[in-house]
Amino acid sequence: MRMTAYLIALKGILKREFLRFIHQRTRFLSALVRPLLWLVVFAAGFRAALGVSIIPPYETYITYETYILPGLCCMILLFNGMQSSLSMVYDREMGSMKVLLMSPLPRAWLLFCKLIAIALLSLAQVYAFIGLGFLVNVEPPLTGLLTVLPALVLTALMLGAIGLFLSSRIRQLENFAGVMNFVIFPMFFMSSALYPLWKMRESSEWLYWICSLNPFTHAVELVRFALYTELNLEALLVTTGTTLVFTVLALLGFNSEQAVRKS
Amino acid sequence: MGIEVRNLCFRYGTRQALQDVSFRLVDGKLNALLGPNGAGKSTLYALLTQLFNLQQGEILLNGVPISRQSRKLKQQLGVVFQQSTLDLDLSVLQNLEYHGALHGLSSRDVRHQASALLERLELGDRLHDSIRSLNGGHRRRVEIARALLHRPSILLLDEATVGLDTAARQSINRHVRDLCRDQALTVLWATHLIEEIDSDDPVLVLHQGRLHADALAHEICHMQQTRTLAAAFEQITGLKESTQCA
């Protein structure tokens, strides 16, 4: 097929995801309310209990709200990635996945388009959230808003790929609750999103190691450093590697997709 | 542009859904695939559209196995599935644009093509309406328009009239016959309703995964020595008329 056909498909998928997103205004609101609750309510309550010492990339003492901001940005990306997984399962159940699978374009390309759409929608929400953060005096450096963009894109792609991989494994919408309990919550809480890992090490060595191996931890650190115009190479490598692995796994799952369920 | 099925077998676990099914669609005609619920019609459609992988047998497009020309097949096929696949939150045009984009059609091409198709299907004034606001018959017509958007030469409809009232069923059947005649479209029309079949339609009778007849409707009546296709169908399958009417 012509090259323009690929670009038209990309534009079509982006447009559809965008239109679906604006039809689900509550999804946008909940995507912002969830991390805002953490930033305003949870952080206020736990500020004293969870004091943070000077750790890179911070050069001075920081408030707890400042510490959790990158983690909450990644939380938005995490929930969006899983939301995309849910929407793919929904599409399969409702039959609209067949429309996608009947396209003459390669499935790898269609999957890539989906990933880009998920990432772009997530990014818009993250920047809206950072904007709201300024209202409650959580103010990252302005140049950081630019340097964090590639880190956010990579993280969004990683979590989108994990979501698409899961959607190829989840057969029914009802099973999505399991994703919440077995994927989203462990991934988020066993990371450096809410507390630095040395704090975790103080309470449990094995928990510390689990958190260190969690790719979400590395994504959070990548975003944290990028927000302060620094590069965390280890985090970049782990996040890139995880993105590639899950993209391949999602592609394999998507390629063997049989959109019609047993009649 | 011919589709031929040879010795097709398919099973779900231990249940045999299709057993040694072979036929060739008559080009430029409405080919009826007649069978009761559970006969294997949807499985056959899933295989024809490559939504299921072949287990045994082959499907040929112009004499070449479809596995070797997947993209060409998808360019040539227009499909209306039994279950609606429209996005209810989007408008008619947005649904068509999405489908068009997946087939490499620009928005301008889609708008041009969509207006003509919807006009023909008597939905010209509903282009910007939400799918949710359309009734079942109109939604089906939108699906037909969508299936024809990329100008396929073969149209597959899997029980496209299921759940519709008699007037809507007749209207859709008439529209598809007109399209078939005017555009030399090859149609495979799966149904369990005998009233949707004309006496000179090529008919495939599928029952319990086996193909029991492959001839013109009136020839089947002649072979079964019955006056109506309903009676012939009853004789072939052992099923009463009640199974045929929704």
Please give a structural write-up.
The complex is a heterodimer of chains A (263) and B (246). Chain A is mainly α and 263 residues long. Chain A has one domain (3-255). Chain A has eleven helices and no strands. The radius of gyration of chain A is 19 Å and the shape is globular. By secondary structure, chain B is of the alpha/beta class. Chain B contains eight helices and ten strands. In chain B, the strands form two sheets. Chain B has a six-stranded mixed sheet with strand order 6-7-8-3-9-10, with helices on both faces. A four-stranded antiparallel sheet of chain B has the order 2-1-4-5, covered by helices on one side. The longest helix of chain B has 18 residues, at 166-183. Chain B is globular, with a radius of gyration of 18 Å. Chain B starts with a strand and ends in a 9-residue tail after the last helix. Mean pLDDT of chain B is 89; it is low at 241-246. The A-B interface holds A 1-2, 4-6, 8-9, 11-13, 15-16, 19-20, 23, 94-96, 98-105, 110, 258-260, 262-263 and B 12, 17, 38, 42-43, 45-46, 49, 51-53, 70-72, 74-75, 77, 79, 81, 83-87, 89-90, 94, 97-106. Chain A: It holds the Pfam family ABC2_membrane. Chain A: Its main location: membrane. Chain A: Belongs to the ABC-2 integral membrane protein family. Chain A: Residues 26-257 form the ABC transmembrane type-2 domain. Chain A: This is Transport permease protein. Chain B: This is ABC-2 type transport system ATP-binding protein.
Summarize the model shown.
Chain B: GO terms for molecular function: ATP binding. The complex is a heterodimer of chains A (263) and B (246). Chain A has 263 residues and is mainly alpha-helical.
CATH superfamily of chain B: P-loop containing nucleotide triphosphate hydrolases
The total of beta strands of chain B comes to: 10
Determine the strand fraction of chain B and express it as a percent band: 15-25%
The helicity of chain B comes to: 25-40%
How is the CATH topology of chain B named?
Rossmann fold
Strand content of chain A: under 5%
> Could you name the ranges of chain A where pLDDT drops below 50 across 5 or more consecutive residues?
259-263
Number of helices of chain B: 8
What is the residue-mean pLDDT of chain B, rounded to a whole number?
89
How far from one another are the termini of chain B? 33 Å
How many structural units, i.e. domains of chain B? Answer: 1
